[in-house]
Amino acid sequence: MLKFRTINLVFYATLILLLVYTWIETLPLLGFCLFLILYLIVLVCGSFVLSMQFFLPVKFKGGAHSNSIAITFDDGPVPGRTEKILEILKSGNVPAAFFCIGSRVAHFPALAKRIHDAGHLLGNHSYWHGKMFDLQSAEKIERELADTDEVIQRTIGKRPNFFRPPYGVTNPMVAKAVRNGGHKTIGWTIRSFDTVITSPAALMNRVTKSLKAGDVIVFHDDSSITLAILPAVLDRVAKLGLKIVRVDELLNEKGYG
To answer: How many Å apart are CA 248 and CA 62, to the nearest integer?
Structure first.
């Protein structure tokens, strides 16, 4: 949490200087308000922009020399959708990574095992993926991560090293839980927004318009629009002369403990 701590040190040091200045000269209340607003904006950006690595280290891109990219899927496994993704990937002989919700693995272990048996990587995406996931205590977040590790290990015989925060949101509680659990946090360079974009053409353009070596793309298992464009994405990657590898290979990190 070096950046978070640094920003806090700067904030408190500047606040003290402002208070000293106010003791000597009159500083309008608006000045304090603007300073506080700026601080809050930095914290919000640090929480929501995973690649800033504001609260914890994040692996989110490979080397530009790799000539490779990685494709990842969040929120699965989803019966009726994940199987179709696997079929498309198999037809293109393409490996991927699936960041799975623990409760879904528990409900659909055969589907999770099918992902693994097809040669894809399973990662930790929390147990419930609740809307208030990041607002829990560090202990509760750590418990969710441990429960997800446990159900994945029970299903495929391997413990995931990789964790992707729900919604890509981090804070000091998430950072502490990740640190205590020994996970590596995995981000992305291309966020597809396939859960909100409704036009296949718009989604295709967003994902491929600036695609380059080292990129990590994030899709979602439960997105029908992703299924619609995935074959075209694979074709586009091939035409660009890029190779698709698993994210653990792209980042040169161990995907399992």
So the answer is: 10
